[in-house]
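Q: What residues go here?
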């Protein structure tokens, strides 16, 4: 999609829930839409303190349309998750399932990068901060032992955090490609504007059913159980009481 919104503003910006501290102090791991120029407004400055590394999950053609413009002291890592065309009109679960089944190596690279960068603060983003970022956030939080209801709720709020300008641009772009009464148009709108809790819950339950747990899935694709323990300990996550 074409660039949208104010290039000096960041949407969908928030810390990952339930993560409290690292060895160096308060945990600084955030998620967002494309930040563009990292020149934050006063409210955003209150929300973000000390980002040392930005992990960009977008494809090269997306970056050409709207590159990150970061201060010199902020590190930048690009790990494209799709490794190909950005999905246009697929069901959300189909997109996520393909990432899980075909892009395990890329997901592992992201998780290892998060582990390495965490103490200095890390921001993970894609374009809207909804799908690719939502999947990575869910995996990080699962490794940290955060209660699944919290993980799903964090994912589900993403659509509501996107501005009206984003929703309007999606509708305009999709209507130029499909008849607005077509199923393709409706499917494209759902993919690019929604973040239904049922989609993330279904995906995580699928990993439980097929692999035994999210941890076992990650172990199978190359993020070992010892590496997961390092990340979990690094986060010092606040775990939910048993039975919660």
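A:
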């Amino acid at each position: 999609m074409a660039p949208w919104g104010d290039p000096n503003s960041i949407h969908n910006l928030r810390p990952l829930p339930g993560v409290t501290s690292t060895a160096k102090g308060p945990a600084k791991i955030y998620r967002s839409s494309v930040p563009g120029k990292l020149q934050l407004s006063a409210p955003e400055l209150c929300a973000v303190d000390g980002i040392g590394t930005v992990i960009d999950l977008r494809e090269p053609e997306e970056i050409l349309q709207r590159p990150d413009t970061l201060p010199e002291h902020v590190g930048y890592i690009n790990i494209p998750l799709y490794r190909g065309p950005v999905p246009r009109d697929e069901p959300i679960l189909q997109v996520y399932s393909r990432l899980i089944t075909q892009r395990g190596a890329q997901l592992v690279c992201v998780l290892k990068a998060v582990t390495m960068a965490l103490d200095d603060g890390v921001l993970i983003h894609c374009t809207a901060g909804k799908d690719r970022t939502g999947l990575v956030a869910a995996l990080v939080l699962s490794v940290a032992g955060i209660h699944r209801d919290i993980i799903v709720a964090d994912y589900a709020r993403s659509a509501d955090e996107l501005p009206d300008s984003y929703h309007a641009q999606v509708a305009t772009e999709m209507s130029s490609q499909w008849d607005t009464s077509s199923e393709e148009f409706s499917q494209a709108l759902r993919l690019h504007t929604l973040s239904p809790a049922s989609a993330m819950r279904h995906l995580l339950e699928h990993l439980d059913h097929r692999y035994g747990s999210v941890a076992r899935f990650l172990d199978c694709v190359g993020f070992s159980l010892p590496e997961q323990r390092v990340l979990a300990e690094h986060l010092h996550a606040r775990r939910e009481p048993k039975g919660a």
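A: Context that may help when evaluating the design: The chain has one domain: 14-236. Residues 1-5, 38-43, 237-244 have pLDDT under 50 and may be disordered.
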